[in-house]
Structure formats: structure tokens, C-alpha cells
Backbone:
């Protein structure tokens, strides 16, 4: 459906016109080859035809196809919430002066002081408004926990306490960047809740080099980076396998990067699904889900990946490795950051 709809646009007409010109050059080259075999023309004419076809293909590719694809990719990113590109970057894919004026106009509107102030005030209002519901939720959960303790239902009380702690971190904590230690603690709270459902069928292993443990735990990452990926691994990996499922969190620090791997030994995914998911994480696919059966398991991964891109840059993010019936690894790459002040674009967090 999408490809049929795009046939209306000028890009397809340009492609068709280019294909027609290239076909004409091939026909001329074939006609020359036929005359050459019949002894009616010289070799140098064929070389001219071949050079013309090659030059035409190269010019068309680098002057039309490459800039158009860059522009299309940027527009998709812009619609997903990314900002206006740097002017030097934009010059590489602006196909017309009118397109350049459109981008400049959008930049003026989005960066106008009035618009930024309005958006900030609106966000503050929504944040204050949303603080009302969590207090009611916590009070209700605390009441349930008290009743469970009075009735001797210790497991229900523990589950309720864990759920309240999880919601408090998820909803109330307003920081954009949190320490790895805080994020790991939230993951362990979430895992504790899941244990009431799966029992001994689910196990969590955390691995970290003890020499770098303190530095790693103090590194800053976006809030809710690990828990959505863990949830995805449980629902689409270990839950579907027979027997015990193992989740493994590994932390590794280099000079400039923090590498986090979340692995499961679940059902994995086939090559087609894996390739599609990684293309979507790279920004090449703009669909809602990577699951062919509509389970939408890729949304959480794309959400985390996009937030990492927005805060740290597109050289960081997620990559997925998987083998069917063996398991899946999700690798998270972020810069080593100990404070928001170290971010070059920290204004996006304000």
C-alpha cells in the first residue's frame, strides 16, 4: 500500500525518467555492439558510449538518489520527534531552495521563545497534574498491603510493596538521567514482582567487573532504559520456552562507553524478524512493530533506542542479536557520563 501511494510523488517520476534515459543509453550501446560485430564501427565509439553510461549513473546516484534518501530519512526522524538538523548537515540533502526555506521557517517556529516557553509551561502543568494520581495509587497500595498483613497474607503484602516501589520510581521520579545503580534496583524490583508469577522458572543473573563496579554504578543513563528491555525479554523470550528461563545483565565499561547486555535463553527470533528489528532501530523502518503476529514487542526497544539517540546522539543506542531457540541479546551502548553537565545537548532535558 505504501509503495503504491508513493507512485504519485515526484521522486518516482524522477526514477522512471532516469531509468528511461539509462535504458536509452543501453540500447545505443547494444546497437553499437551489433554494428561493431558486423565491422561497421570503431572501438572508440563504444568506449564513449560506455563512459557516458557510467558517468550518467554515477552523477545520478550521488546528486539525486543519495541526497533524496538523506532527506527522506531526516523527515522520518523529524516526524518521530527529532530536532531540526544542523545547517551544514542539511545542505547535503536539500534538493531545492524552497525546501531550504521550509526548514528555516520550521526552525524559527520551533525555536521561537514564545513556543518554547509555552511548551515548558504546558509540560510543568501536566507534571503537576499527574502528581495527583500517583499519591492515590500509593495510598491504595499501602492500604492493600496493611490488610494483607493483618490477614497473614505475607506474599500479597510483599508483592504490593514491590509494586508500590516500582510505580514510585516509574511515575514520581522526575530525573531524566539516573544512575545505573538506581536503574538496576528498579529492574530487580520489577523482577521480584515477576517472580511471584513465574516462581523458580525465572532467574536473574547480574555480572559486573568488581574493579569497575563503583564507576559503572555511578554512570548516568536515561530512566527506564533497562526495565522495558527486561520486560520484553520475559514476555517474548523466556515466557514462551519450556523449563527455566535465565536473564543475564552484564555491565562493561571502556574508556568512553558503557556497554550493557541483557540476554535471555528464550525462544529467540528468526533472521528476517531480527534484521527487520535492527533496521528499525537504525531508523530505516517506520512501522509500529517488529513482531509478525502483531504482538508489538519492538515498541519498547525502539522507545529506549530513540531516547538514547535524542540525549546522546545517533552513534549510541541498541543492537539486537538472536538465534532461534537459543535466545536473544540486546546490547545497549551509551557514553560514560557521570553528570548531565557533561552532555553537549543537555538543553533537551530541561
Residues:
Amino acid at each position: 500500500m505504501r509503495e503504491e501511494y508513493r507512485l504519485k510523488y515526484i521522486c518516482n517520476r524522477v526514477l522512471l525518467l532516469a531509468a528511461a534515459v539509462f535504458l536509452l543509453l543501453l540500447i545505443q550501446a547494444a546497437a553499437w555492439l551489433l554494428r561493431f560485430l558486423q565491422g561497421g564501427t570503431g572501438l572508440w565509439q563504444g568506449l564513449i558510449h560506455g563512459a557516458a553510461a557510467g558517468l550518467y549513473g554515477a552523477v545520478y546516484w550521488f546528486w539525486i538518489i543519495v541526497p533524496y534518501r538523506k532527506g527522506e530519512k531526516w523527515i522520518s526522524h523529524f516526524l518521530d520527534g527529532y530536532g531540526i538538523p544542523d545547517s551544514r548537515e542539511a545542505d547535503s540533502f536539500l534538493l531545492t531552495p524552497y525546501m531550504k526555506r521550509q526548514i528555516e521557517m520550521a526552525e524559527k517556529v520551533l525555536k521561537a521563545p514564545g513556543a518554547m516557553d509555552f511548551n515548558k509551561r504546558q509540560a510543568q502543568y501536566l507534571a503537576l497534574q499527574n502528581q495527583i494520581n500517583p499519591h492515590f495509587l500509593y495510598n491504595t497500595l499501602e492500604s492493600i498491603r496493611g490488610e494483607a498483613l493483618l490477614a497473614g497474607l505475607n506474599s500479597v503484602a510483599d508483592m504490593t510493596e514491590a509494586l508500590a516501589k516500582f510505580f514510585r520510581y516509574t511515575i514520581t521520579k522526575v530525573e531524566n538521567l539516573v544512575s545505573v545503580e538506581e536503574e538496576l534496583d528498579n529492574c530487580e524490583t520489577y523482577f521480584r514482582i515477576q517472580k511471584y508469577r513465574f516462581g523458580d522458572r525465572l532467574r536473574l543473573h547480574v555480572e559486573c567487573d568488581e574493579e569497575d563496579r563503583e564507576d559503572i554504578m555511578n554512570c548516568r543513563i536515561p530512566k527506564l532504559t533497562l526495565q522495558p528491555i527486561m520486560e520484553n525479554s520475559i514476555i517474548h523470550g523466556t515466557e514462551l520456552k519450556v523449563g527455566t528461563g535465565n536473564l543475564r545483565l552484564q555491565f562493561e565499561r571502556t574508556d568512553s562507553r558503557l556497554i550493557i547486555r541483557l540476554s535471555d535463553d528464550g525462544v529467540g527470533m528468526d533472521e528476517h524478524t531480527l534484521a527487520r528489528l535492527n533496521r528499525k532501530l537504525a531508523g530505516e523502518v517506520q512501522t509500529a512493530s517488529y513482531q509478525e503476529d502483531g504482538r508489538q514487542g519492538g515498541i519498547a526497544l525502539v522507545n529506549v533506542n530513540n531516547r538514547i539517540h535524542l540525549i546522546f546522539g545517533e552513534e549510541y543506542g541498541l543492537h539486537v542479536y538472536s538465534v532461534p531457540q537459543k535466545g536473544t541479546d540486546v546490547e545497549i551502548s551509551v557514553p560514560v557520563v557521570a553528570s548531565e553537565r557533561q552532555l553537549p545537548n543537555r538543553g533537551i532535558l530541561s
